[in-house]
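Q: SulP family inorganic anion transporter, please. Structure only.
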Amino acid sequence: MKNNLFSNIKSDLPAGLVVFLVALPLCLGIALASGAPLFSGLISGIIGGIVVGALSGSHISVSGPAAGLTVIILTAIDSLGSFQALLAAVVIAGIIQLILGLLKAGIVSHFFPSSVIKGMLAAIGIILILKQIPHAVGYDADFEGDFSFFQFDGENTFSELTKALERLEMGAVLISTICLAIFILWEQPFTRKYSFFKIVPGGLATVAAGLIINQALINTGSDLAITREHLVNLPVATDFDEFLGLFILPDWTILSNSKLYLVAVTIAIVASLETLLCIEATDKLDPYKRITSTNRELKAQGIGNIAAGLIGGLPMTSVIVRSSANLDSGAKTKLSAIIHGILLFVTVIFIPNILNMIPLAALAAILLVVGYKLARISLFKNMYSLGWDQFLPFLITVVAILFTDLLRGIGIGMAISIFFILRNNYRSSFKFDSASKESGDGKTINIALAEEMTFLNKGSMLVTLREIPENSHVVIDGTKSKIIDHDVKEVIQNFQETAKHKNINVELKGSETWKKHIINL
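A: Structure for SulP family inorganic anion transporter:
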């Protein structure tokens, strides 16, 4: 792959176009759910694409307003009293993220287990499918981009799905079915032999087909025509002054309010965690296995949120749905993210009326395929083949995210993963000569300590030493150990005392330093 930013434009341009089509309704839906002006979501999408895209070190990640922040934003607007006050909090949150990046706090991402990250990707894929089915059949009660199990209207993912299937809009079903078939066909190997399928992005062909079919239904007066509430709904400015009026400035008079800083810190922490999770996930999806600097990403996100807050945008994060769509569309460099931001900006100004003709059912077809690719059955089979210590954290993460939300699900998955880490650490902290132990006839028992013996090994060490039979000669070998925690040394020292009463001879091997330390405890 070429390193020049524009050298892969043949791949990045169509990918940027597809991501733009996916991001457009998500920006609007998240703004609507957040109780913010619709244009604020578009501002974040534009800045997330152009500014963060240019500053980020990630090649395929795409940033914009995130569903995980909707509840925080909705609550913050109410507690602070206005959307303008929220914008001040967004600017401060961006400054905090910038500082976190300078302090190299991005290292936190390296502690997310692979099984949990893969579980997150699979969960998002399943949720995408479940959440897009209602839009595909013309039931748009839930906003685009919602990932929470419990919804604002009192419904949940499954009850909403049941309602959607009971209230089918046959026009939406027709369009989503045709669009889904077109998008799948576009990605088949045999179609890539023809230059037309290479030049025209599948996402563009899918959306264009949906738009044309619906306009044909409208023009013929068909009852199957999709009505206004099931189409993209961009705010349309009638003149340039009205367009400028869509930008809102922060209210700085609230700087003396302590609630402002609590909201800012909350946004900074949640946005940073979601970003780091997404970056870790997209790096795993990247076919070129490039590694993103997480500290640079935090700085880029911070600058992006400062810019968004100053002109009326929602807080943003790196978003896995847009990033996955970007990757699936063949993106190779960050240029695709920048292109998607430019397209959002240009089309919102010049052709909003055309964009407002796009059926949500057509966009749902694209996201259904993205969801399937994230949650392939082969991924579940592969994780199962790795053993229970990998499969269970993976599976529990999937279920937890599905029934709660992203951060809570990740937290539960992390807890399960840590349990297996502790269990494995307990089992493999040292090598024990089991044959000698079984004989119990006074033979030498060798215990070779691991390279690192921490407090996590204390329990297994206690159990092992407690079971050593009387009249034994025990050699505790710390030759290969670089770190022996105080807790472990204390266990060994206590064993030396109890060994005297069992006629057990204890011999220590290794550096004189650690042996003297045990003697002097």
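A: Brief note, in case it's useful. The domain at 430-519 is CATH 3.30.750.24 (Transcription Regulator spoIIAA).
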